[in-house]
# Entry
Amino acid sequence: MGLSDGSYAQLLRLRTGLRRFERWSAQQAQAAGLTATQHQLLLAIRGHSDPRGPTISDIADYLLLQHHSAVGLIDRAEAAGLVHRARTDTDQRVVRLRLSELGAQCLEGLTALHVEELRRLGPQLTALWPPADD
# Structure
């Protein structure tokens, strides 16, 4: 079963749109004084479903990083005043992460921009997939 030329064209438009969004997002993070990865870290902490906060392993999973790379990212974010580490009462080996006030403020501003941009782009992206002609 061969795919149509239209399928390839739609996939190209979708992937190009995603890349443009990623670039735009990185530019917004930079304008806020963050790296794109720091923005992702803040989002992973705030968006985590457990109210105690994510663990370092959770962060590594969200950001597709090795554990030691996540630790380095968290170290730099903590030094920048964006996050706090906290040991759990039940197991001192488990470290959970929380946003600092500065981290929460940065993330709130970036999230508002991203929600607005996704609302603008959403119809364009969803119109591209799945291909209608296969």
Summary: The radius of gyration is 18 Å.
